[in-house]
Specification:
Order of helices and strands: HHH
Number of domains: 1
Shape: flat
Number of helices: 3
Structural class: mainly alpha
């Protein structure tokens, strides 16, 4: 997804996307502006851990 978005931005000569789906979710939207990046990284890390533990079962 991120690679596709990057190449689409380069092809159309527009700005490259800075954030992904998690950053624009309602859960992150309720956080303060200062903490949005930190909380989205935290949530992405927890999703990664959950998917790894599920895959190992």
């Amino acid at each position: 997804g991120a690679e596709k978005a990057l190449f689409r931005a380069l092809k159309t000569r527009s700005k490259t996307p800075k954030y992904g789906l998690l950053y624009h979710s309602t859960y992150i939207g309720r956080a303060g502006l200062k903490n949005k990046g930190r909380i989205s990284r935290y949530l992405a890390n927890k999703c990664s851990i959950a998917s790894r533990s599920t895959a190992s079962l």
